[in-house]
Amino acid sequence: MVEKISQLNRRQKEQAKHYLSEAKPQAVVVKYLEDSFEPSCPVCQADRPHRWGHQAGLQRFRCCLCKHTFTAISGTPLTRLRHKEQWLN
Ligand SMILES: [Zn+2]
User: Is the pLDDT of residue 50 over 90?
Assistant: First the structure.
């Protein structure tokens, strides 16, 4: 489960690359990733997290058990890239 959350699967990577190559708005890619995201805590793997506001345009979740907050792309390479504001630009 940690593996599932911490890395995009091959299909997601291909899709992200596809979107990147077409210079889609960031919102489109984020929407895609969120739609395919089944939220569960990357720390304790508890599912059914609460929605917890937004972080940089992403739906943010908060684990009911350990209170860790995360988004659909937490722990993925996209997080690092997005913080540098380099992806999709
Ligand atoms: Zn947790």
Answer: yes
